[in-house]
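Thread: zinc ion complex, take 2
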Amino acid sequence: MYESFNQHKNGAEYLTSPLFDSYGIPHMFSTKNGGVSEGVFSSLNMSFGNGEMRDSRENVEENHRIAAEALGSLYEDLARTKQTHSNTVKIVESKDKGRVITKDKDGTGVDGLVTEESDILLCVRMADCVPVLLYDTKHEVCAAVHSGWRGTLGEITSKAVDLMKESFGTEPSSLIAAIGPSAKSCCYEVGEEIYSAFVAQNCVYEKAFDWRDGKLFLSVGELVKLQLLFLGVTDDKISISPLCTICNPELFFSHRRQGSARGTMAAFIKKRK
Ligand SMILES: [Zn+2]
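Output below.
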C-alpha cells in the first residue's frame, strides 16, 4: 500500500514508514538534508562518490554518525556493504559491527544484510535505486536491501526473505516491508530490453511499466512489491513511499537527474527493544 512517509528532523532529516512506526521499529530513509557535506554532496551524503568529485572521509563518516545518533545508535554499530547491484544477501553478526560487509575475502559485493542481533544498525545506500527494509515481527529479525533494477531482476528481496526463512524461521505472515523513495515511472525512462527481461521472467511484471508517447517508464519499487506479494506478504504489510527521487530535488539526490556528481542517501534499520 502506498502511504505518505513521516518526515523527521533530528540532526538528520529523514523519512519513516508509518507501518514500521506502528510496530516501533527503529529505521530511517535518509534525505539529502541535515549533514555536513558541501557542494554537490550537500549535505547528508553517505558515499565518497563515483565520479571525478570526491567527498571527504571525515564528512561521510560524520554524516553516518548523525544518522546513527538520530536512531539512538553509535557510528560503531553500523554494518555497511560494498554494493555491486548483486543479488547477494549476508547475515551480519556482532563481530561485523563497524565493518564494510563483502561476500568473500576477495571483496565481492553484497547488496542485502540480515541480522537477528541487537544494536547492529544495518545500512544500504542508494540514489534512485530502491531501498527495501524487512522485519519479521515474530522472530525479531531485520533486513536492509539495495534493489536497483539489476538486483530486482535477480530477486534480491526474495533472496533476503529466503535467507530469513532458512536461518530464523521467518514466514510471510509475520513479515512487514517498507519500500523507500526511489525512481518512479513519472520520470524513470528505461530501454525496452529491461521490459523484456522482466516480462520474460513473469508477465505480471508488466504492471510496473508505463508507456507514454512511445517511451517506456518504470517504477522499480512496484516490481519489488509484486515480488513480496508472490512470497505471500499481504498488501497491507507492504508500505511504499509514493515519492520519486528524480522529481523531488529538494529532498533527494538522484543519479538520473544529477549523474555521478551527486551525493548518496541510505536506509537504516535495527531491531526494536
Ligand atoms: Zn518523478
